[in-house]
Amino acid sequence: MCRLFAQRALLPSRAIEPLCRARNALRFQSHQHPHGWGIAWYTSSGIRVRKGVLPAHEDAAFLGAARLARSAVILAHVRDASVGEVSPANTHPFVNGHWTFCHNGTVARYKRSAAVREAVEAEIDAGLRPQLRGETDSERCLYLFLTRLLARRRDAAGWLLDDLRAALQETSAIVRRIADRPGKESSLNFLVSDGRLLAACRRGRPLWFHRPDGPGGLFRVASERVGSGDWEEVPEDGFVGVDDRLRVSAGELSSSRSAA
User: Fold this and answer.
1) Half-sphere exposure of 146 (CA within 13 A, CB side)
2) Does a structural domain hold residue 260?
3) What CA–CA distance (Å, rounded) separates 175 from 122?
4) Peptide bond connecting 93 to the previous residue in cis, omega within 30 degrees of 0
5) CATH number of the domain that 160 lies in?
């Protein structure tokens, strides 16, 4: 499958250690996930994204992008292609407006079943469908997430972690209803940010997070533990998120505000 990583800080920070240098850094993980890489981060002028189609451990551009990235929010992904050719359009993170999105997993039967592909795409808001660029199930999960999120009423102060949790839960439930069959189940680990909030959910693949170590610390979430520290495993069908004050919310993906 793939591997994802993200970190959230109070102030602009770098991620060169977990991406390239630390024990089990994402660059090392790319030996098993060699079909391209992407790094996205937020600046005062918008989102910056760097992508490559070579394995991250063989691509000097990955190291260059990791050195360049400096932000309160950084997302990264190394791909093991299951749906869609190896190309920039199919490489995570996917970006729409101020949203960035990564997926670790596969929508069941998506590659072989035109009916599944058509049904998933039909759940995406008609106004968003023309913005699809690649072939992957993952990109369609982003637009399904945005469809569910935009159907909700935004708080006066902006989106809340509960809104992201609900939209992720609804996205997962819709995909599973369409695609899953006994013995063929989707794996749907999603990672999403708007530059202020950062959230992730787990279904079918491992997911870990690291709480900030005191004031000025970093929140991190990843497919595999990177470096040292006390990583906590997100339970199956679990959710973890952090806001711009580094307040962590962790628990079940389903909540009282969620609906399939």
Assistant:
1) 24
2) no
3) 11
4) yes
5) 3.60.20.10
